[in-house]
Design goal:
The complex is a heterodimer of chains A (about 500) and B (about 475). Chain A is an alpha/beta fold. Chain A contains 21 helices and 16 strands. In chain A, the strands form 4 sheets. In chain A, strands 12-11-10-13-14 form a 5-stranded parallel β-sheet, with helices on both faces. Chain A has a 4-stranded parallel β-sheet with strand order 3-2-4-5, sandwiched between helices. A 4-stranded parallel β-sheet of chain A has the order 7-6-8-9, sandwiched between helices. In chain A, helix 8 links the parallel strand 6 and strand 7. In chain A, helix 20 crosses helix 21. Chain B is of the alpha/beta class and about 475 residues long. Chain B has 21 helices and 14 strands. The chains are: A alpha/beta (about 500), B alpha/beta (about 475).
């Protein structure tokens, strides 16, 4: 047993559901008790989804506990097949079905006899894998299922496209800024003269999966989702893949060079150096930003980075390599893939933290006192408590991290967005700090309704100076209470005497 | 249970139980805030934790007095000793937070692996010196607000039956003290000697609402001698045989049963104090049991209705469809029908016809008086079927969970998120306006957005 207040990666079934509901016309049926369909709320709320989330539960209740699911799961699958005629129904096990140990594969086989669509059992174990690993596995499982099916039917598309083309693998629902990243990647591919053969799973139909082998290569933008699929495609069809996340100026260039190398190996004869140079120096503002005076001021500032593997590693490199910021700690909650993370970031930071215990991260931040944090929503709240600004760079995320405006983290527009995020975090921190030093304008508590500071009360120099010595977080309150005290007594000037009298009277 | 005729005119249906609701463990979110010296330990898996973390949003960061005891594979296969594991965690909680009570919330997983929480608790309680209350609030048996019911039913066993020391009497009489705060001693003296048998109310409500309802009864000469739950665990009310009890919420059947059967209390079966009509009926029923003639209630109710007129104009004649997920549905529907709305369907997770008898009777009476057809009450609804019915009926408002709200809005159907009714203050005369504030919000939003021509925002081929 583990005492836990917060978790970074969700349970396994969330990963499966994210994959299933990313595809078009795929329905997931959870074998779960009442209330476990919380995924629908998250998707409907966070993504502001207009369509009903294609996830239903085959409810496990007392009767199921006593007698087993019997016909219930099969009936629910065939019913959904009739009602919505999905191409595929994914039966999704949960923590509950993991311990009930019912033969779910048997239900799937039986349901398949009646169902017109395909039926699959997601091969994930709640107690062994988390959301991210389960998502990776489910995507691979679905791809393999449809490629094998196509191979049997003999309509597998293995003929390469005439022009260089790519499969973008790993864009999914509830992924951090995935929609914007997808648009940016498509734009990048089009700039490079590469056709997009398929984007999976988001918005894809399972019927098009048989054409995956037609692409010249696969692009895996995120470390957490798509690698298993890419490995499978490599084994079966010899498809090469690029798994360099194009996040940050240097990494984007590295990703493009890798693509160039793969294409040229297949005889494309492309040269992207001119494109990289033009984008870096004139289109993306990030390279120029790193030379500007603004960024100079950030030199040597301390930062802590924490998140999933993809974003924490990329962010660490951007901060250290492209902005001269001192990353005192880089960490990830992807414990299962810790070696990769260590290899990526160790030369760019003082310390590496592999943990999914938010207490440990909070303690590390408190100990290191960085000038800014780049983390998840949890780190944002740690920052709030410690008065350290935080830029959110990875899931878990809230609704404000699903912006309507265009905010990719990948590609050249992504570098601009990241630069803004970094810069805004630090300036806010500096401004705060300066205010503290100069006892500055305290706008936290409203004293008068209007913005103009036409107070009818005068503070004497001494009283004002004493007020400024009051710690910032209560200063507004003290000021307000003192003025209230003075007003009630018809005093127009607040002297030191009045100040202390007020303090005694109202505990201000 | 007090004798009440089971209503005959209402039509009850039962569907498949394929509906969306919150897991009952969500009750920790409001109960830990209500019972200030408690700590809630949810013994379950990542799934439970993920739900709580996401459902509670911002609250989770405020150092909540609740946590997960997350079960790992070793716990499931009994390689680890449950008792030792729970002891380790509870000692840690004692050290870090020092609560007056630890509430264990049993989940689906503890049910399936048959972890004997009720058996372990007394042993561990004796060993670590903190009361441990066990509530099985799991998704196998219960929906959403029923979680509170299981916790309060367990708490009912912990209410003292006699108070020996004066100091403790003081403490457990906190509500009285609160109400008489600032008055002189002689003035408060009669207050401690009511002219009727002791009355204890049950149901967790925000403190301002508790004060409000207690004062409302006090005006009629009814003294509330305690409230389950109180602000602190150490202030749980005294309950002796023969005491009267009354519920303030429709989902508290187990608590009511426990108070009657185990604590030998007499239950006052009344409609619930939701809406001015419900509040009046609730007070009248309590008064009638104690042989008190209620004073000025009709005028009071009339005044409230008058003050609601601006909102009533917005909803009169409009229809509202309850998909059902929190058990407040019958009371809310009854209130909205009195407001002039029509209700084709009331979905509800679970319908206790005995505990809600008076409320159902009032619903039926209200329908007759307002001249509207009786609603169809659908227990354990099937959300898919309901969506088909909504499509056919095109109601003016659907009260539903978040899973369906945005998709329905995109199809031009107004929705109100049902969970808000659980967290808003909706009890008593003065909160009637808050209910209507919630109900009318989508309609007011529409008034400001009308004529823009973009009510339906899905392409036609998209499926419902």
């Amino acid at each position: 047993m583990k005492l836990a207040y917060w978790m970074y990666a969700g349970p396994a079934h969330i990963g499966t559901l994210r994959i299933a509901s990313s595809f078009k016309n795929v329905h997931a049926i959870m074998h779960a008790p009442l209330g476990d369909d919380y995924f629908n709320v998250m998707r409907s709320m966070l993504e502001r989804e207009r369509d009903f989330t294609p996830v239903t539960a085959s409810v496990v209740d007392r009767n199921v506990l006593a007698r087993g699911s019997q016909e219930k799961v099969v009936d629910n699958i065939t019913r959904k097949d009739r009602e919505e005629s999905p191409d595929l129904i994914v039966l999704t096990p949960t923590c509950t079905s993991s311990i009930l140990q019912e033969d779910l594969q048997n239900f799937v086989d039986r349901a398949q006899l009646d169902a017109r669509g395909d039926v699959l059992l997601a091969d994930v174990n709640h107690y062994r894998v988390n959301e991210l690993q389960a998502g990776d596995r489910t995507l691979q499982q679905i791809v393999q299922f449809y490629l094998e099916k196509a191979r049997k039917k003999g309509d597998l598309g293995i003929e390469k496209t005439a022009k260089p083309s790519v499969n973008i693998i790993g864009i999914s629902t509830l992924g951090f800024h995935n929609q914007h990243d997808c648009t940016e990647l498509k734009r990048l591919m089009s700039d490079l003269g590469i056709e997009v053969n398929a984007v999976i799973p988001e918005g894809a139909s399972v019927h098009t999966l048989k054409n995956l082998p037609q692409a010249w290569f696969n692009l895996i933008p995120y470390r957490e989702l798509g690698l298993m699929t890419a490995q499978y495609l490599e084994q079966e069809f010899g498809m090469p893949s690029v798994d360099i996340t194009p996040m940050g100026v240097v990494e984007t260039a590295r990703c493009i060079r890798k693509i160039q190398q793969l294409l040229n190996a297949q005889g494309a004869g492309v040269d992207y150096e001119g494109y990289i140079d033009h984008q870096t120096r004139h289109v993306s503002q990030a390279a120029w930003f790193s030379r500007s005076i603004d960024c100079q001021n950030l030199t040597g500032k301390k930062a802590v980075v924490f998140g999933d593997n993809t974003h924490a590693a990329a962010m660490t490199k951007i901060l250290a390599r492209e902005m001269g910021i001192h990353v005192v700690l880089a960490g990830t909650y992807c414990k299962y893939d810790a070696d990769w993370f260590k290899a990526q970031v160790s030369e760019y930071c003082d310390e590496v933290l592999i943990s999914d215990d938010n207490g440990a991260i909070g303690d590390a931040i408190a100990r290191l006192e960085p000038a800014a944090i780049f983390g998840t929503q949890m780190e944002r709240h740690i920052g709030k408590r410690l008065n350290i600004p935080c830029g959110v760079i990875a899931a878990p995320i809230h609704i404000q991290n699903f912006p309507i405006g265009y905010r990719p983290f990948l590609g050249y527009e992504g570098t601009n967005q990241v630069a803004d995020l970094v810069y805004n975090s630090f300036t806010l921190g500096m401004e705060d700090h300066l205010l503290e030093i100069f006892g500055g304008h305290d706008t936290k508590e409203v004293i008068t309704k209007g913005m103009s500071a036409d107070s009818d009360l005068n503070w004497t120099k001494e009283a004002q100076a004493t007020l400024n010595q009051v710690p910032g977080f209560v200063r507004g309150k003290v000021k307000r209470n003192t003025e209230k005290f003075a007003r009630e007594r018809g005093l127009s000037e607040i002297s030191l005497e009045v100040f202390y009298a007020a303090k005694e009277a109202v505990g201000a | 249970m007090t004798v009440a005729q089971e209503p005959t005119g209402l039509n009850f249906d039962c569907e498949t139980g394929n509906y969306h609701t919150f897991c009952p463990i969500s009750c920790v979110a409001w109960l830990y805030q209500k019972i200030e010296d408690s700590f809630f330990l949810v013994i379950g898996t990542k799934t439970c934790g993920y739900f709580l973390q996401n459902a509670m949003g911002v609250m989770i960061f405020a150092e909540p007095r609740y946590a997960m005891a997350e079960l790992e594979e070793g716990d499931i296969s009994a390689q680890l000793n449950d008792y030792e594991e729970l002891k380790r965690l509870c000692l840690q909680i004692k050290r870090d937070r020092n609560p007056s009570v630890i509430v264990w919330i049993g989940t689906c997983t503890t049910e399936i692996i048959k972890m004997d929480l009720e058996g372990l608790a007394p042993k561990l309680e004796a060993e670590i010196g903190i009361p441990i209350v066990t509530a099985r609030a799991n998704g196998l048996d219960y929906a959403f607000t029923q979680g509170e019911d299981t916790v309060l039913a367990a708490m009912a066993h912990r209410c003292p039956s006699k108070v020996t020391s004066e100091a403790e009497k003081e403490e457990r009489n906190a509500i009285q003290k609160l109400l008489t705060f600032g008055r002189k001693a002689e003035e408060t003296a009669p207050a401690s000697a009511p002219k009727h048998p002791p009355l204890v109310l049950f149901g967790s409500l925000p403190d301002p609402v508790v004060t409000n309802l207690t004062l409302e009864l006090k005006k009629q000469g009814v003294e509330v001698s305690g409230w389950l739950p109180a602000k602190r665990y150490t202030e749980l009310p005294v309950i002796e045989e023969g005491y009267y009890v009354a519920g303030v919420n429709p989902f508290l059947s187990r608590t009511a049963t426990t108070l009657m059967r185990r604590r030998k209390c007499k239950l006052i079966g009344a409609p619930f104090p939701i809406g001015p009509d419900g509040t009046r009926a609730w007070i009248e029923k309590i008064c009638s049991v104690f042989g008190i003639e209620p004073q000025g209630l009709a005028e009071r109710e009339e005044k409230i209705w008058e003050s609601l007129e601006d909102y009533l104009q917005l909803i009169r004649g409009k229809s509202v469809f309850f998909m059902g997920d929190n058990l407040l549905e019958i009371s809310l529907a009854r209130f909205l029908i009195r407001c002039g709305m029509t209700v084709p369907e009331i979905g509800i997770p679970y319908m206790d016809k005995r505990y809600q008898a008076a409320e159902l009777a009032l619903l039926e009476k209200t329908c007759q008086e307002m001249g509207v057809t009786l609603p169809n009450i659908v227990e354990k609804p099937d959300n898919y079927n309901q969506l088909q019915r909504i499509k056919a009926l095109q109601p003016d408002l659907v009260i539903t969970g978040m899973a369906h709200a945005n998709p329905l809005e995109a199809r031009g159907i107004n929705t109100k998120w049902s969970v808000e009714f659980t967290f808003a203050q909706i009890h008593g005369f003065s909160n009637a306006r808050d209910i209507l504030e919630l109900v009318t919000r989508p309609l007011r939003r529409n008034n400001s957005l009308k004529d823009l021509g973009w009510e339906k925002l899905v392409q036609e081929e998209a499926k419902v």
